[in-house]
């Protein structure tokens, strides 16, 4: 059976064999309407055809003629170069001036290729950029963050995970210009992610909804508390491996970030029952605050993902109390959203599904007898 990609390829081949203009939404091949050469293809049709192709082919197409290059430059808003295993840096320096309308640019790398001159070129020409992925760019320095701060102030999503050379002063500087950030991935940014940087994020990025601070060992209660007070719309926060934080951080999040849906506390061994009870209490207070107001089903879910693996100070009583308050936390097979691996004392904790199943089983047994 021919797959979707195969059908696309066949359709594309037919287009290349007999290019036709579109009239009223339908392709027509009448006298005077057949396009004699590919360079004369209408921009709308060209962009429609190119939407079926991978990014590597689109780049090649931009070199066919000046007309195609101009059309693609104006129409291309999304580009992924993760397929480029060598020479990505030079490719970016060459392409960024041509593709100035980019809004999404994915530059994930298996091995570090990008250097500061490429990011500076992006910042100089791609002024509409909103989503940028620079993960694993080990060669980049603070020069890149300073350039992005000035050239791309409309960034809403930035992934610099694994960029271990960035400093906290450069990250703080970036947040002073990029106030629209909603998603920020700093996983493994051991120098950049500090309490100082988090204070700047809390001060400048009030719209932030998702933040990954995994394995940023310099992060402490001061930074997380500043974040909680400055970013009340936070939905997802990963603090896995942030070994310095204590209950103080979780209490601040529970009190201030009432939309929190996902929280990672893996290996945060200073977290105790006090933090769990504060999260449970926030659920009670949320319900009181929203009583009488119109709520969506999503608002009713509350916390839906919690990773407390290796948090060995926690007891079953506190975690069960939390689980009882948040029906979105699951321990049942296939739906694990409450992750407790490495905590042998918590194996007795059960989600609402398991409790309901056990109650139903007992009722069935009673009826049978």
Automatic annotation (TrEMBL):
Residue ranges constituting the F-box/LRR-repeat protein 15-like leucin rich repeat domain according to the UniProt record: 152-291
Listed InterPro entries: F-box-like_dom_sf, F-box_dom, FBXL15_LRR, Leu-rich_rpt_Cys-con_subtyp, LRR_dom_sf
GO biological process: SCF-dependent proteasomal ubiquitin-dependent protein catabolic process
Species whose genome carries this gene: Nepenthes gracilis (Slender pitcher plant)
Name of the protein in its database record: F-box domain-containing protein
Highest taxon, organism lineage: Eukaryota
Gene Ontology terms: cellular component: SCF ubiquitin ligase complex
Domain F-box: 38-73
Alphabetized SMART domains for the sequence: LRR_CC (SM00367)
């Amino acid at each position: 059976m021919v797959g979707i990609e195969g059908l696309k390829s066949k359709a594309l081949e037919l287009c290349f064999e007999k290019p036709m203009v579109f009239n009223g939404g339908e392709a027509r091949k009448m006298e005077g309407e057949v396009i004699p050469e590919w360079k004369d293809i209408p921009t709308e049709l060209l962009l429609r055809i190119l939407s079926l192709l991978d990014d590597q082919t689109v780049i090649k197409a931009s070199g066919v003629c000046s007309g195609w290059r101009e059309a693609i430059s104006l129409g291309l808003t999304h580009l992924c170069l993760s397929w480029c295993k060598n020479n990505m840096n030079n490719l970016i320096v060459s392409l960024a001036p041509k593709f100035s309308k980019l809004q999404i640019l994915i530059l994930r790398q298996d091995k570090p290729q990008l250097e500061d001159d490429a990011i500076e070129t992006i910042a100089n020409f791609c002024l509409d950029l909103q989503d940028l992925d620079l993960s694993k760019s080990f060669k980049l320095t603070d020069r890149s963050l300073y350039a992005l701060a000035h050239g791309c102030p409309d960034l809403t999503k930035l992934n610099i995970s694994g960029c271990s050379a960035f400093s906290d002063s450069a990250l703080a500087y970036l947040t002073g210009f990029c106030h629209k950030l909603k998603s920020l991935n700093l996983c493994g940014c051991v120098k950049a992610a500090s309490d100082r940087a988090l204070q700047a994020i809390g001060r400048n990025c009030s719209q932030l909804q998702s933040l990954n601070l995994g394995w940023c060992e310099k992060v402490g209660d001061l930074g997380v508390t500043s974040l909680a007070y400055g970013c009340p719309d936070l939905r997802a926060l990963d603090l896995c491996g942030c070994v310095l934080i204590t209950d103080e951080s979780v209490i601040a999040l529970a009190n201030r970030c009432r939309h929190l849906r996902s929280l990672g506390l893996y290996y945060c061994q200073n977290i105790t029952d006090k933090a769990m009870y504060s999260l449970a209490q926030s659920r009670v207070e949320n319900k009181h605050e929203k009583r009488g107001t119109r709520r969506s089903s999503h608002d009713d879910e509350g916390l839906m993902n919690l990773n407390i693996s290796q948090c060995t100070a926690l007891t079953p009583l506190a975690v069960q109390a939390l689980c009882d308050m948040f029906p979105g936390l699951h321990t049942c097979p296939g739906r694990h959203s409450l992750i407790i691996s490495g905590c042998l004392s918590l194996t007795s904790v059960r989600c609402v599904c398991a409790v309901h199943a056990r109650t139903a089983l007992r009722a069935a047994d009673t009826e049978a007898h």
